[in-house]
Amino acid sequence: MNFSEALALLKDGKKMTRAWWKNAVSVFLVPGSKFTVNREPLLSVLGEGTEVEYRPHIDMLASDGTVGTWAPSMHDVLAEDWKLAENAMQKELSAEDVAMGMFDAYGTHCGWKTFDGRDMPRWPDIGDVVRAHWLAAASWAILSLVHDWDDPDQFHGEDNDGNCALCHGDFEQCAYCTAHAND
């Protein structure tokens, strides 16, 4: 879903997240309110008894449980991977989630233009071959974060088709397999 749809759901009191945000990261709308200052941190700034009109805003619940104000980046506003946080809680980040996030970041960074100036398609519109390339890149990125490159016993193995489980290609063409062929 796009950000406009996500914003409408935020206004309806729902928590939202992006497909590639880790763990329980989500955003939610804090409605406006009025209150009387009676404790810190506002007590020392405004004084006890001061009436405050608290404006509506969006907060982010981080994976460590902390909450802070949040403003969407252009990347967030143009993203097409928004979803209800209730559907994403405790979800492992898949290679496709990472690939979509990488593709979205790349598109945003280059103004959604290809190297030769043509309009770049969005994730739902790319073909299977291009999607497979992005999934291979995402798989590599995921593995590179958790892999101990100095441990030859951490070979990544074969997929169901007998190809490299990392890039899903021929072992002789995989950068990791080639670099560690004699391990």
Structure notes:
By secondary structure, the protein is of the alpha+beta class. It has a domain at 1-90. 32% of the residues lie in helices and 15% in strands. The strands form 3 sheets. A 3-stranded antiparallel sheet has the order 2-5-6, with no helix packed on it. A two-stranded antiparallel sheet has the order 1-7. It has a two-stranded antiparallel ribbon with strand order 3-4. Strand 5 (57-61) and strand 6 (67-69) form a beta hairpin. The termini are far apart.
Show the helix and strand layout.
Blueprint: H1 3-11, E1 16-18, E2 26-30, E3 33-36, H2 42-46, E4 51-54, E5 57-61, E6 67-69, H3 74-78, E7 82-84, H4 95-109, H5 128-146, H6 175-179
Antiparallel strand pairs: 1-7, 2-5, 3-4, 5-6
